[in-house]
Amino acid sequence: MRNTFCLEWDQAHGAKLVDFHGWNMPVSYAKGILAEHEATRTSAGLFNISHMGRLRIHGPQAYKFSNYAFTNDLTHCPIGSALYGFLLNDKGGIIDDVIIYKEANDRFLWIINAGGRETDVEHLKRLSAGKDLTMDVLSDQTALLALQGPKADAILKRLAKDVDLDKIPYFGFGRGTIQGKSAFIMATGYTGEDGYEVMVDVKDAPMIWDLLTTQPEVTACGLGARDSLRLEAGLPLHGNDIDETTQPYEAGLGWAVKMDKEGGFFGKEALNKTPGRKLIGLTLEGQNIPRSHYKVVSEGKEAGEVTSGVFSPTLKKGIALAYVKIEFLDKPLAVDIRGKAVPAPKTKLPWVRHVSKAKQK
Amino acid sequence: MRKFAKTHEWYEDIGGGKIRIGISKHAAHELSDVVFVELPDVGKKLSDKQSLCILESVKAVADAYSPAGTVVEVNTKLKDQASLVNQDPEGAGWIAVVQLDNPKALDEYLAEADYLKTIVAH
Lengths: 361, 122
Hints:
The complex is a heterodimer.
Chain A: H1 7-12, E1 16-20, E2 23-28, H2 33-42, E3 44-48, E4 53-58, H3 62-69, E5 82-88, E6 94-104, E7 107-112, H4 116-127, E8 134-137, E9 142-148, H5 152-159, E10 160-161, E11 173-178, E12 181-186, E13 195-201, H6 205-213, E14 218-221, H7 223-232, E15 277-283, E16 295-298, E17 301-312, E18 317-325, E19 334-337, E20 340-343, E21 346-347
Parallel strand pairs in A: 3-14
Antiparallel strand pairs in A: 1-2, 3-9, 4-7, 4-8, 5-6, 6-7, 9-13, 10-11, 11-12, 12-13, 15-18, 15-21, 16-17, 16-19, 17-18, 19-20
Helix pairs in contact in A: 2-7
Chain B: E1 2-4, E2 9-15, E3 18-23, H1 25-31, E4 34-38, E5 45-46, E6 50-57, E7 61-66, E8 69-74, H2 84-87, E9 96-100, E10 110-111, H3 112-121
Antiparallel strand pairs in B: 1-2, 1-10, 2-3, 3-9, 4-6, 5-8, 6-7, 8-9
């Protein structure tokens, strides 16, 4: 298993470590998932997400290639802004969901999932063979930290120099310094809160991690809280809700696919815009928690399957993302929990999102 | 006298052939953040090593098992305060009292020191 820069700190702070896509990562620290979740919703949570991959594609054909490999459209994305979208295979399946940060017209930073470190890079290399561009994999020489929550902005304003955070809108980014060390500061996240993701040199990461964790408003959080936060925010997890066998439209993510963009994109021809099932949100009644792979039922018939489920600490209820066959979308839905059909009304996503207007584009 | 099961329950003999049941500190820590406890109905008959109840934590679901008997009391506080299982698993976070079919049923279970050894070995 691989370790991030943070292992010693994790071990010293009561981390429960698990194997996440080959990475030795904390599910939670001593306070537990609920406390970490709550801290992120009300103050600030700090997450080490260095297991995720980072690469930079630059050079004369970097734009054209990036826009072809990616489903969203970088054409109208201003420099200093980012877009969410997908890498597709030739069947239209989602190899990965990624965010691309446009640093210049010929320079793009990609943030990819931990599980995509090998598969994405292989796919991109195959697709870019013979193109005039350079792909630098930065995953091992950098670290990625996420500071999320209503107090994240004030904390980072106190610590980050050489940057005006007020000029960085939601999904924007800029460069600054923290304790004199270069920091790539992105106003993105995976919690449904305002906040930042900060990429730093891996050598500087322990110092910056220590600095952030010792801020009074900050609680260090593990992947457990990251999962309950992203699920409340209605955000899909690659490997659970989307994968190589699912397509963007059935996942309700067609907004990040630009079918009409110039030059098209890889996997476009295989996309089905009228899928037979849809990824939707379900909110369970009573004291019941849906889990991944539980069946969705409707009046005794099998209607679909849960892909992510959790106890929502904010709603104090079980919530799920589930694929449900189109013909059942307007029918009463339930989740089969140990043989009991627990009513689970369809719920508009997200359950919780606190991204403030001021930070929105 | 308290006995422990390898499946991480504690059974306390409270006299009259009755035992109080809860989960061990170790189990509560491993499960962490218990949010719902699906309590059995009083009067429910349990066959040996059958699930007494289901504990739902944020990340996982787990059963607690009991020797054969009849549920005579449940800790109703857990309905609204499942977190007691984490805060005080071997005290206020108890789950139920069971009238044993066989008053000697606890003989096969482990003394605390022996139970703790199984965790270390694990």
